[in-house]
Amino acid sequence: MVLLFPYFLKLVIFLTNHLLGTTSPDILVGEEKPYISRYIANAHTMFNVINAIIFLSILPYLVKVATWLTPSAKDEKLDELYHIRYLDRRFVDSPEVALLQARLEIVRMGDIAQTMFDDVVNALRIRNSKNLSTWKDREDILDNFQKEITDFLVRVMQDNIIVEESKELASLMRMSNNLEKIGDEAEDIAIAIEAIIDDGFYFSSQALQDYVVISSEVSKFLALVIQEIEEENVNIMPEAVTLVNNVNQMAEQMRSSHYSRLMEENCEMERGAIFIDILNALEKISDFCYNVAQAVAGVK
Predict the structure, then answer these.
(1) What gap in Å lies between CA 67 and CA 43, rounded to an integer?
(2) Which of 54, 110, 220, 233 could be joined to 228 by an S-S link, Cβ 3.0–4.6 Å?
(3) pLDDT confidence of 80, banded at 50, 70, 90?
(4) Alpha helices, DSSP H, located in the chain
(5) How far apart, in Å, are the Cα atoms of 59 and each of 48, 70, 71?
(6) Could you give the CA distance from residue 207 to residue 154 in angstroms, rounded to a whole number?
(7) CA torsion angle for 42, 44, 49, 51 (degrees, to 10)?
(8) What b-and-e string marks burial along 143-178, b requiring 16 or more CB atoms within 10 Å of the CB?
(9) What are phi and psi of 232, to 5 degrees?
(10) Is 244 exposed, middle or buried (0-12, 13-18, 19+ CB in 10 A)?
(11) Tens digit of pLDDT for each residue in 216-230?
(12) From CA 101, how far away is CA 211, in angstroms rounded?
């Protein structure tokens, strides 16, 4: 406004004269300017109005600049995941609705676990620690989901529910618990991979190939159970049995091969221990996926 001040004064005088019928601000009455207060008030009002118009017109750009200038610990999409979307405590007295809400949240929980797992295992393939930057946030989200879903289902359980609803409730709780455990094992893998990348370790070509094969099979298993939770497919068990057996056999064969490489001194002991730890974690994740599959099928 300072840059436009001469024009701003003319605008104030023009509008005050023509809209309010006030005479010139320079008129003297008894050596005083009786109308000057009106011009000052109008100038103050117009200054605020013009500022508001200017800033409202460029507000979207100001928001972008402010967001760009402000450091953020989490991206917006990740921050949104912290919030429970479907659970509504007003429906705890309506088990049919409440169980549907819980299932929808568990599907979201599964998607978060899948993203976390894929980001973590891919980090070693491309040796990019940026893929690991959000693993802790996602693990915290899984913990929060498991707690919220469990509390919600316990409230539903306290009401009078029929036997079939009680079985479904137990299955949903088992799904939630095992998805949270998958997050815990993915956390262990992330910590191990961070150490590998930071210390400049490299697995042997055979160990890396084994890692890619078994982690891909586990990712496939996790994707399967998440899909079947959503579709409520009780016929999941044949494929789940095949996948868990595949992973267990892979892990056993890869451990045996790795021990042989250690004996032949084709691999350093420290790296060898990390590789075994990762194999163990992947095998546990497969077992947790199998537990989820059983819950989907209503076996346990």
Answers:
(1) 33
(2) 233
(3) low
(4) 5-20, 36-57, 59-69, 76-81, 95-126, 135-157, 163-199, 205-231, 237-263, 269-297
(5) 16, 16, 20
(6) 45
(7) 150
(8) ebbbebbbebbeebeeeebeeebeebbebbbbbbbb
(9) 55, 45
(10) buried
(11) 999 999 999 999 999
(12) 37
Q: What is the dihedral of CA 252, 255, 259, 261, to 10 degrees?
A: 120
Using CA atoms, how far apart are residues 78 and 81, in angstroms rounded to an integer?
5
Res 171: pLDDT: 96
Handedness of CA 209, 213, 218, 224 (dihedral sign): positive
Question: Please, are residues 214 and 279 in contact by the beta-carbon 8 Å criterion?
Answer: yes
Give 144's pLDDT tier (boundaries 50, 70, 90): very high
Q: In this predicted model, what pLDDT tens digit does every residue of 156-170 receive, in sequence order?
A: 998 878 899 999 999
Contacts of residue 47, defined as CB under 8 A and 6 or more positions apart, other chains included, come to: 1, 8
Indicate the angle between helix axes 36-57 and 5-20, nearest 10 degrees. 120
What residues have CB less than 8 Å from 272, skipping those under 6 apart? Answer: 258, 261, 262
Three-state DSSP class for residue 29 = strand
| Token pair belonging to 242 | 């095949």
* Token representation of residue 46: 């117009």
Q: What is the mean pLDDT of residues 253-276?
A: 75
CB atoms within 10 A of CB 11: 15
Count of beta carbons in the 10 Å neighbourhood of residue 73: 7
Distance, in Å, from the CA atom of 126 to the CA atom of 4, rounded to the nearest integer, reads 57
Nearest by Cα to 290 from 238, 253, 249, 252:
238
Average pLDDT over residues 22-29: 72
Crossing angle for the helix pair 163-199 and 269-297, to the nearest 10 degrees: 160
